[in-house]
Amino acid sequence: MHSYQTRxxxxxxxxxxxxxxxxxxxxxxxxxxxxxxHLQGSFAAFFxxxxxxxxxxxxxxxxxxxxxxxxLAWKIIGIYGAFQLLLMKIVPGKPFLGPITPKGNxxxxxxxxxxxxxxxMVAFVMGSFVLHWFSPSILFDELGPILGALNCFSLAFCLxxxxxxxxxxxxxDCGSSGSFLFDYYWGTELYPRIFxxxxxxxxxxxxxxxxxxxxxxxxxxxxxxxxGLSNAMLISVALQLIYIAKFFxxxxxxxRSLDIMxxxxxxxxxxxxxxxxxxxxxxxxxxxxxNPIHLTAFTxxxxxxxxxxxxxxxxxxxxxxxxxxxxxxxxxxxGSKPLMIHAEYQTQEGELxxxxxxxxxWWGLSRHFHYIPELAAAFLWSMxxxxxxxxxxxxxxxLTVLLVDRAFRHDRRCSDKYGPYWxxxxxxxxxxxxxxVF
Length: 438
Prior knowledge:
The chain is mainly alpha-helical. It has 19 helices and six strands. The protein folds into two domains: 68-294, no CATH class; 297-438, no CATH class.
């Protein structure tokens, strides 16, 4: 069970909060899609519709035509999903060992993310622009039915994962909280595998994150088709593509993140990556489709340069920590020997393990400094939409809440895990995210 469960009222955490999110999140995605694709990103226009027709009537009007998807949407999802599963298996890659689990298990992955990303991008460009098998704008044109199909599939898939974790787990890192609502929301298994495929690697990385660039390329194609391609769209899409490429370069590092190491495979992770991510994460580019904006050359250059710098700093911070741990500190950090704390911890099985806590370089500025350039980059690929509507800034707002919450969660987990070693680290690095501020 998640470590912060004991810090909140059990009924709230086990029943009320999961039920609220299960009821609110799916319809919210369809409202968000409709506002972006049909109301030019104006929430005010949606509220006018809801005021005129009633909220639930308006929601049903939006959701009903796409509720179960469409034959074409299911075909797109099936081909895309099968293609990604095939790439995970056949594309060469070195084995990568994930972090040891609380029960002493060590997940094994194939590190072939960069190659799979490259093949996927080339396949989309070849299939749409060269071979003309499909229109490059097909994902925008079919986005509502795609989200409908994904929602139906992912809700059923999460139910399957719930029973799998209880009765056919892939490892000993599984179990139930006693609440069906919480177990469906959170998951019953940490590292489920199906026929050798790691579920979270597929849903998080190879379906969700790999689908993100395809969607925004399709949005750009749609804007080009209807209005001509604006430089605002070019900047937003280019920065997102760089960020996503960086993600796959760093994919093995993601296997050591809180999402993978601690969050189980349930509604929060799997539905989120299959249904929430495709709509919300791509929303700045979705907004720009019907809101073409032409920026001055200087403004465009500054937005792109600062956004690219944010992505670079985020990558360098993650790489710095990986390098120190891989070399056991036998390297330089900003030209000096790294300041490290050699921490020890015990698994649930009582096995003693060691790790390094880096307290210099980027990781000496604050304990989660790498979140700052990530948020800056997300803001800068939203900024080409300017400030006429809040819609293109919803993602960066959501990301801010997510990362601040994650910083607190991570600190609590590390405090429980490392004890006095974490106290020593916090004494050396007193700021959580923003140096000298927070």
